[in-house]
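Here's what a typical entry looks like (Cellulose synthase catalytic subunit [UDP-forming]):
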Amino acid sequence: MNYFEHIVYYLSLMIFLLLALQAIYLFVFSVASHLIPAKKYPEVNHLGSFVIYIPSYKEDAVIVETAAAALAIDYPVDKRKIIVIADSLLPETLQKLYSLDIQVVVVSFEKSTKAKALNEALKQTEGEFDYALVLDADNVCAKDCLFRMNDVLSTGFKVVQGQRVAKNTNTTMALLDAVSEGINNQIFRKGHRALGLSCAIIGSGMALQYALFKEIMPEITAVGGFDKEMELRLIRKKVLFGYAEKALIYDEKTSQQGAFENQRRRWLSAQFHYMRQYLLEGFSQLFRGNIDFFDKVMQTLLLPRILLLGIVPVAFLLSLIPGPGLAPVYWLAALGITYCAILISVPAKYINKQLFKAIISLPMAFISMFKLFFKLKGANKTFIHTPHGDTK
């Protein structure tokens, strides 16, 4: 091979290794989630007390309904308190909230963030509780959600993530978002717990010991991705996260292309921010035996799955062109592992005609995600709001 052919070969080898390692990572946890039985948590008699925080930034369309749904959760009234954090809500919305049996904390910031809202609510929370549960303004908990959370928290976990499931699949975009959430639950929650690692927390539907929540929140200054900062800070301290698979939290999925792109732009920006901040420390913690922290940092290196699903088959097709790159068999193997890891993680309830119709739109979703890489500048310095309530 000449000089140019050497460059092409080693470049293709490097790209292959990066993509193949991601595929293997997803495959291992996906298979583990199916082969290793999930731990069963028996119902317990002792009921801990919960304070439920619901930050609401310009969520007039859904927050009253969400607060009412929280009041309807089946749990002793004297063991749960609901606090809505009202940021930039309309006066008529505030009046409706004041009429409910909840606490309303009105906040106003020059630059709003979820972390600021939660910290202010903590200052205005009276009394002591066993646990704090954080919800998004569109979340609706299953009736027995707190009971199931309590079962897992009672075993000694200081942090527990409930299972977020889709509230709506009314559009192609919402369905793809719902499927993505289901895959995340299978790989990054159920699969990780199956292998003894912490499950991923999301930022809503997560419960923490109240004392730990009060301790960690003042450290959180993130504009976007406050849950990732919390996750890394807690796992650095070797706090293990549990997964309450039976504690269901219904989450509204993005129905429109613009909202989808805004949401993903926020997530990508936070991912790259924490990758830069914690990558070196990830290897340092690995040598100290903190595999959990290293694993969470490695997750910041993963490409969005929609990009992985698009890049790998394109790379395979390019490998069929005669040249100095890797043989097609390598790319075919990567393709098989990638698609197998994703397909076996799709929740069975979504495998229907509607899903197959939605798959047709994947190329457009791939293009949208790819374009977002060129729109990340400054995204982690400004709060990017994703509005809710458009599920018709």
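The radius of gyration is 22 Å.

More examples are in the samples folder.
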